[in-house]
Amino acid sequence: MTPCETKAKSKHPSYGKVFLMFARNSLVRDMMFRANFLIESVSSVCWAIMNVGLYWIIFEHTTSIGRDTGWGKYEFFVFMGTTWIINSLMQTFFMPNSEEFSELIRTGGLDFAMLKPIDTQFLISLRKVSWSSLSNLLFGILLMVISLAHLMTRAENPWHFQPSIVVLYPLYIACGVAILYSLMICLAATSVWLGRNQTLYDFWFYITNFSRYPMEIYARGWGLPLLFVFTFVIPVLVVVNVPARLLAQPLTPRASWEWPLAGFTLLATVSSLNVSRWVFQKALRSYRSASS
Amino acid sequence: MYGLSLEAVRELIGHYNSIAMAIIEIEKLSKSYRVYQKQEGLLAAVRGLWHREYRDVEAVRTVDLKVEQGEFVAFLGPNGAGKTTTLKLLSGVIYPTSGTARVMGHVPWLRDNDYRRRFALVMGQKNQLWWDLPAQESFRLHERIYQIDKKEFTRSLNELSDLLQVQKLLGRPVRELSLGERMKMELIAALLHSPEVLFLDEPTIGLDVVAQHNIQQFLRYYQQQRKTTILLTSHYMKDIAALCQRVVVITDGAIKFDGSLSGIIDSFSGSKILKLQLSDGQSAEGLERFAEVTSVVLPKVALRCARAEVPKMLAAILQHYQVDDVAVEDPPLEDVIADLYQKSN
Amino acid sequence: MFALSLTNRVACWWMIFRIALEERLAYRGDFALGTLMRFLPIITQVFLWTAVFEAVGSGSSTARLAGYSLDDMIAYYLLSMLARAFSSMPGLASTIAKQIREGEVKKYIVQPIDLIGFMLLGRAAHKIAYYTVATLPFALVFYLCRGYFASGWPSSEILIAFVLSCVLGFLLGFFMDLCIGLVGFWFLEVSSLLFIYMLLNFFLSGHMFPLDLLSEPWKTIVDWLPFKYMAYFPAAIFLGKIPAEQLWWQVGTEALWLLGLIGLSRVLYSRGLKRYSGYGG
């Protein structure tokens, strides 16, 4: 082929179109196993309901989590709703892929991903979409709406709708997902060095476990170093806390540390994504490709 | 006098460059791995928790190779000789320990999108198609990822599925296809973007004779039509004999031979096979005095002897036996290669 | 003659046990990480419950929640984790179901090995391999958290009952998972059943919270189910939450559950095999 024959192809394929293709193919696949799809949706909602059940039981015995933190029953359920929304987004778009990433490393299937003229991290991270996990998104939204309705109608200090939340809440949800994604892809990439990595999921669960509670509970004694580490080193604490707080707590009065924290979250998102990119590239370099 | 225009000069230079630079150039390429040495026994397994012993394995050592545009080259060698590792290095899947390689002017392990659009790798033991979906869905994904022109895509897909006779299977989930059918789909997936260089790693492994033959025929036809540069590894001598003009023998990570298939026999086999047809009533007794007897099916006898000894041996045998017919042949290729593999171990 | 065959059998069991143990120890990275991670949730539990108790008792250290002080609550989580380390059987049911589905179970028909015995030994080996590595971190965590065990070491009777209930918990957990896996002889896909079981187990075993927090009638219902022996029961014994006169009664009930499940698994296995070979595999 002479140079003039080569048509001017743009260096990168259209990522949007490729992603739509992934989403479509995944849906076709999910619909092939409809019963499975249904079971997965139902069971993940059951799991969510059980979690709400636990806190329902706890709130039978108490009125709030921590003294004067403002996390009463329904505020906390808004917090939980946010947790479920973020988690379900993770499970829908990234979880099946990073699980498979470890598997691709183990079996050598990563070879094919590396051959494609498209960003390998993009390909690996979004190849499959687990549509059934969106059921939890619906559950999270439902829980949030019901709780907000309760907060709105309560006699004392009712919740008011702030227009800015329409922009801020989704923005910080996206930040949260991006931070968790970065952590997850870093964990998955460790399979390159550690070999079989069954504990990946456990580790993921345990780390994100910290993010499932209002950060005030760590603000004492030996919780402070934890608060520091999980805010500034592995920023999982801001993932749910920042959007949930924006939504559930009244805009005024705001504690002095809240707006800086919101600003920090943006910074943390950008740096997490960069770190994940770096780790991913490192992992690809160390990949030795299981021979057949 | 000819007045050369600037364009003509450019074209000439471009032409010259394409001749001067081989499409694949490898220099002193090496790749070594560190592997964990598993110890036998329970105690050792417990000890392994804290302390591990590693060993360096050189999969490829200082390989030099040049391949010209349009060549069909076979890599031959025992398991673990470094054939697949070389292909993976050339595909940019793994990084070399040292050395350089250029394929169409690109350094493979930089994994440039432009490079990745110009070649393909097919591995007989792995599959890249979505397992639960019909192959055509995976193909469409390729169309997007490789930015294949819509018309070009339809044309290629029709042509390839025609040639491989799989038009009717395009809509069936990949998991329901036979191994041979799946391999054909893998080939289509790899060829849709019309790669200029194609790496085939044991494309016929595990296939039955008919499927093997189909794929050979297809590859030969495709290569003749497109003049694609192809590197192939295979354990089936038939694949290689049918397809490749040039064979590169790799053992222990290094190139031991580079030339034509028949050249292997000249360089590695010091012996010839003497086939005698003895006259009626002659017995084969005593022939072992002259050379190693490999088979006796009277009246036919086969002997193996060193290449240099052939004339002497023949003369001696003809003196003592009545022989109707004589043929001097090369030993079968498979035997030579089996010897070669064994020596390397 | 009998003695010989017995030593043979023991040698065979020992072999199976050793292979499982070696296999387990081969994946070092996995192991170290896994053990370390297990303790992370405890930390969040400590903070969560501290916050909850703070709100309940307005900061007084004598605040109680369903009879639990803050110290009791943390001690409960530590002990229930220990109990779960015995009774949880990750991947057992799905492995068995997979072996049935993919015909691997034939090997137990052809070879003179008993599937249930083989699996039990394998699990025991896995658990022991786990403890050889996990004892140290477990001991460390319990040492660091000794302050939460306000009333010190319990009496030797309670200790014996505690150890016994842990061991019974291991067996109970094993046979429950086994039975679910064996259902695979009838339904090829057991994953949904397994999920429901895991969900119930997680919630009703007391892994998430002390079952005493439940209000009636749930408390009584849960009391009659076998799940509580997997986490709640050993922890409650240790903390003296089981009245002395009921202690051995309840251990007895647990043993009965175990016998019932052993019987059930035997029936499922033999019927299942019959059904399997009836279909010609």
β-strand amount of chain B? 25-35%
What is the global morphology of chain C? globular
Radius of gyration of chain C: 21 Å
The share of residues in helices of chain B is 25-40%
- Helix % of chain C is over 70%
pLDDT averaged over residues of chain B: 85
Provide the low-confidence segments of chain C as ranges. Answer: none
Any idea what the CATH superfamily of the domain at 15-118 and 195-265 in chain B is called?
P-loop containing nucleotide triphosphate hydrolases
Helix tally of chain C equals 12
Strand order of the largest sheet of chain B: 5-6-7-3-8-9
The tally of domains of chain C stands at: 1
**Helix and strand pattern of chain C:** HHHHHHHHHHHH
Low-confidence segments of chain B, given as residue ranges, are none
What is the oligomer described by this structure?
heterotrimer
| Biggest sheet record of chain B | 6 strands, mixed
Distance between the termini of chain B: 64 Å
What would you say about this model in short?
The complex is a heterotrimer of chains A (292), B (345) and C (281). Chain A has 292 residues and is mainly alpha-helical.
Q: What does it look like?
A:
The complex is a heterotrimer of chains A (292), B (345) and C (281). Chain A is built from 13 helices and no strands. The longest helix of chain A is centred in the last third of the chain and has 29 residues, at 258-286. Chain A has one domain (58-286). Chain A starts with 14 loop residues before the first helix and ends in a 6-residue tail after the last helix. Chain A is mainly α and 292 residues long. With 345 residues, chain B is α/β, with parallel strands linked by helices. In chain B, helix 6 (150-163) runs antiparallel to helix 7 (179-191) and helix 10 (261-268) packs across helix 12 (333-344). Chain B is globular and about 75 Å long. The N and C termini of chain B lie far apart (64 Å). The mean pLDDT of chain B is 85. Chain C has 281 residues and is mainly α. Chain C has one domain (2-278). Chain C contains twelve helices and no strands. Chain C has helices spanning 2-26, 28-37, 40-57, 70-87, 92-101, 106-110, 115-144, 156-182, 191-204, 218-224, 232-238, 244-278. In chain C, helix 5 (92-101) runs parallel beside helix 8 (156-182) and helix 8 runs parallel beside helix 12.
